[in-house]
Structures are given as structure tokens and as C-alpha cells.
Amino acid sequence: MKKTSLTTILTDTITVFWGEWLDLRVRILPVAAAGLVSPVIYILAFGFGLGSSLPKPAIGGNYLEFMLPGMVALSSMTVSFTGTVFSICGERLFTKTFEELLLLPVHPLALHAGKMLAGILRGILTSVSVILVAVLFTQKLVFLNPLFLLMIILNSAVFAGLGVIVGLTVKSLESVGLYNNFLITPMSFLGATFFDPASLPVALKGIVYLLPLTYASIGLRAAAYDVAKFPWYSIPVLLVAAIAFSLIGARQFTTQQD
Asked: Tell me: the pLDDT tens digits for 78-126?
């Protein structure tokens, strides 16, 4: 019975994800480029501008190389979160097709997982575009390794899961803006994307290490430049966060009314 139940959930998940993919595939290029503007601006302003006057960082050949993995983390976070939120909000608040989705004989966990997989895919697509820019600027292929990809997937999973929760909770697009202003934007700058958290005072470290983006940034940085010093604890931290958001999101699907 358990095997049948698991098989059903997996099948339903693929079905939900396939519906998301059919909508996503006609917008692959815009989705891939959606999270590219901010990282490129940051690369030009901080990597080439400010970075030229900074001393050599602890990891990476120069500040530009140091910040590039952070830009990958930043883009995967932003697109996974916002893409998932707006996808669900569009169905709930505008097209009014979300009620039909809730009436389907599909397990709530499968509904959540399908939406979450679509968010992960959005994050990966955008991350690939940022990686191409990073390779172009550095002429290095250090970003193309399995551990780097794993960290991208985990980071995208965390924020896609959070995006599902927010998408099911908000009552208007203005509310989405509040989450962006008070959660995503601060995390973009405090999540170790531009600095090494090891150099911070203890009190600030406590705040920075509460943010999941921090673990993605330091993990991607080590995966690119120094695998021997890779923070292996970052993998279970991101995995636990992704699972926790998944369980919360799946529970919301069971009680969602609109």
C-alpha cells in the first residue's frame, strides 16, 4: 500500500510539473534572463568598479571571482522565489484557475512538489545564464562541477518552497512587494553574496548564519575555488530548510480555500 501511495504521489507530481513546464517552455529565454540584470549590474559596479580597489580576498583570485558565486546564489534565489510566487498568485488572483487545481484528485504533497520543481527549474535556468557570464568574465570553468550544481538545486529548492508558501498566503500583489522588500532584498545583501561572513563580529554572524542564502553563497564559493574547504554542513542545512518549507506548503494545500 505504501509503495502504491508513493507511486501515486510521484506520478501526480510529474503531472503537475508537466503542466507548469508546458507554460514555462514558451518563455524559457525571458525566464533565463529574468534574474540576470541585477547580477550583471552588481558585477560591473562591484566586481570591476569597487573590486579593483579591494585587497585580494581569502578565496578566489580577486574580488570579481569572489563575488561571482554569490551572484549565482542571488539569481537562483530571486527567480525561484518570485517566479513561484507570481505563478501561484496569477492562478489564485487573476485567472481564477487555482480552485480547479484544488479540486483535482491529487495529493497535496504532489501539488506542492510540482509547483516547487517548476521553481527549481526557473532557478537553474537563470543560474546557467549567470554562470555563462561568469565564465565569460573569468575565462575559467570552475563553476561547471557537480557540487556547484547541487548547491544551486538546493538553494532553488529552498526559495521555491518558500515561494509556494508566500504564493498561497498573500491576498494581493502589493503583499508580494512587502515580502520582496523585507525578506528577499535584505537577504540579497546580507546572505554572504558580497562578503565573507567569517570576518564579521560574532553578533552579526548570528544574524547572517540564520539566512539560508548564506549557506548557498559560501557553499558555491568553496565548490568553485576550494573544494577542500567546502562547508559540508551547508548541504544538510539547505536540505532541512527545503523539506521544512515543503511540509508547510503541502499542509497549506490541504487547507487552502482559494
From this structure: 999 998 998 888 888 777 777 777 777 777 788 888 999 999 999 998 9
Are 245 and 158 in contact by the 8 Å Cβ rule? The answer is yes
Residue pair 34/121 in contact by the 8 Å Cβ criterion: no
Encode 117-135: b = buried (16+ Cβ within 10 Å), e = exposed.
bbbbbbbbbbbbbbbebbe
Distances (CA, A) of 160 to 42, 83, 150, 239, 251: 23, 8, 15, 13, 16
**Non-local CB neighbours of 124 within 8 Å, separated by 6+ positions:** 76, 152, 153, 156
Cα 108 from Cα 137, distance rounded (Å): 44
- pTM (2 decimals)? 0.89
Domain that holds residue 166: 2-255
Q: Phi and psi at residue 91, in whole multiples of 5°? A: -75, -35
Cell of 104: 483535482
CA 88 to centroid of chain Cα atoms: 16
Domain count of the chain?
Answer: 1
